[in-house]
Design goal:
This protein is mainly α. About 65% of the residues lie in helices and about 5% in strands. Strands 1-3 form a two-stranded antiparallel sheet. A two-stranded parallel sheet has the order 2-4. A two-stranded antiparallel ribbon has the order 5-6. Helix 6 runs antiparallel to helix 7 (about 205-225), helix 6 (about 165-190) crosses helix 10 (about 265-280) and helix 8 packs across helix 11. It starts with a strand and ends with a helix. The relative contact order is 0.11. Bound molecules: fe (ii) ion (2 copies). One fe (ii) ion binds next to helix 6 and helix 7.
C-alpha cells in the first residue's frame, strides 16, 4: 500500500500515485511454505559448498554499502512528471519484491531456529540483506513524498503456498534474474551517465552481488536434492519455472517500457539480454534450461506480451464480464499455445553438459 507522507506542502500536488498498485498476476507475490519439510532438508551431499556460501553471507561485504550519502541531499523537482511516475512505479515494485523476500527468509529463519540452526542462520543473513534493500528503496520513495506501508503489506497481502522444491526453483531464479536486472542497468548507466537522474542506480553494482550470493545459496539447496535434478519431474519443473519467470519478466518489462526509456534503454533489448543471461546462469544449477536461441523463442514470448496488452484494453472497457471473457478467449488461447510451444521445445540438457566437462 502506498501512502503519501503527510506533508502539507506536497499533499494533493501529485495525484495519480497515491493509490496502491492494483494486485495483478504480475505484482510481486508473498510466499509461505512447508516449514517442517524445509527443516528436514538434508545438506550432507553438499556440505562443503554450503559452508562456503554461509561463509560468504557471514562476511557481510555490503555492511557499509547502504548508506545514503550527500548525493541524495537535493531536491528532485527537476525530474519531469513522466519520468517520476515511471520511476516511482519501479521503486514500489522493487520494494515490494525485496520485502517479500525478507518476510519469507525471516519466517524460515525463525521456524528452523531449533531444528536446523545452520540453515536458519543462512536464512537470517538473507533476510538481513533483503531488509536493507527494501529499506533503502523505501527511503528513496520518501524523496518523492511516498512510502510503502510495510506493516500493512505484511498483514493484508495474500500469501501463496509453495512446496520447498518450488520455493527453491522460484527463489533461485528470482535472485539470479534480480542480479542480471540490476547489473544490466548499472553497466548501461556507467556508459551513459547522462541518463542517471537519481543516485540509487549507483548502488546497484554491490547490491546485485547480494542477489548473486542469495542465488548461489539456493543453488546449493537445489543440488543437495537429487530429485530436483535427477528425475524427469525435476526437469519438467525446472522448465516450468524458467518459462513462468521469463514470461512474467517479458510482460512486466513491456508494460513498463516507459521506465526503461527514461534510462535510455530499449525495453525489448533489455528484456532479451536479462532472459538470455539468467537462462545461461541457470545452466549451472538446473537439470535443463530453455533454448533461448531458438528462432521462435522471443517471438513467442513477445506475442504473449502483446496479447496481455490486448486483454488489458478489453478489461478497461465497461462491457459485462461474460462479454470480456469471450473477447479475451482468442488472445488467451494464443498465449497458452505460445507458452506450450516454448515449454515443449527441445531444451538444453545441463546434466549432459556437466558430464562432458567432468
Ligand atoms: Fe534483494
Ligand atoms: Fe535477494
Amino acid at each position: 500500500m502506498v501512502n503519501t507522507i503527510q506533508n502539507p506542502e506536497t499533499q494533493g500536488l501529485r495525484p495519480g500515485i497515491k493509490n496502491p498498485v492494483q494486485e495483478t498476476l504480475l505484482t510481486p507475490r508473498f510466499y509461505t511454505t512447508d516449514f517442517d519439510a524445509m527443516a528436514n532438508i538434508n545438506l550432507s551431499t553438499c556440505e562443503e559448498e554450503f559452508s562456503a556460501v554461509l561463509q560468504e553471507l557471514r562476511a557481510d561485504y555490503n555492511r557499509h554499502h547502504f548508506v545514503r550519502d550527500e548525493q541524495f541531499d537535493q531536491s528532485w523537482e527537476q525530474i519531469d512528471e513522466r519520468t517520476r511516475l515511471a520511476f516511482v512505479d519501479f521503486l514500489e515494485r522493487s520494494c515490494t519484491s525485496e520485502f517479500s523476500g525478507f518476510l519469507l527468509f525471516k519466517e524460515l529463519s525463525r521456524q528452523l531456529k531449533n531444528r536446523n540452526p545452520l540453515l536458519s542462520e543462512a536464512f537470517h543473513l538473507l533476510a538481513r540483506d533483503e531488509a536493507r534493500h527494501a529499506g533503502f528503496i523505501n527511503k528513496a520513495m520518501s524523496d518523492f513524498n511516498l512510502s510503502l506501508d510495510l506493516g500493512y503489506l505484511t498483514k493484508n497481502r495474500t500469501y501463496t503456498f509453495f512446496k520447498p522444491e518450488w520455493i527453491i526453483f522460484a527463489v533461485y531464479l528470482s535472485e539470479k534474474i534480480g542480479y542480471w536486472r540490476y547489473i544490466t542497468v548499472f553497466r548501461h548507466l556507467e556508459k551513459h551517465p547522462e541518463h542517471e537522474y537519481y543516485p540509487l542506480f549507483r548502488y546497484f553494482e554491490n547490491w546485485c552481488q547480494d542477489e548473486n550470493r542469495h542465488g548461489d545459496f539456493f543453488k546449493v539447496l537445489l543440488r543437495s536434492q537429487p530429485n530436483m535434478w535427477q528425475s524427469w519431474k525435476g526437469r519438467l519443473w525446472a522448465r516450468f519455472f524458467l518459462l513462468t519467470v521469463f514470461a512474467t519478466h517479458t510482460l512486466t518489462v513491456n508494460e513498463r517500457e516507459d521506465f526503461y526509456e527514461t534510462l535510455g534503454l530499449d525495453a525489448k533489448e533489455y528484456n532479451r539480454h536479462v532472459v538470455r543471461k539468467t537462462n545461461e546462469t541457470s545452466l549451472r544449477a538446473f537439470p535443463e534450461v530453455l533454448d533461448t536461441e531458438h528462432p521462435d523463442f522471443f517471438r513467442r514470448l513477445e506475442q504473449c506480451s502483446e496479447n496481455n496488452v490486448k486483454n488489458q484494453k478489453i478489461d478497461a472497457t465497461e462491457k459485462p464480464k461474460w462479454v470480456k471473457f469471450l473477447l479475451k478467449l482468442p488472445t488467451n488461447c494464443s498465449t497458452l499455445w505460445h507458452l506450450l510451444r516454448i515449454y515443449l521445445a527441445k531444451p538444453i540438457d545441463a546434466e549432459a553438459l556437466r558430464a562432458e566437462v567432468h
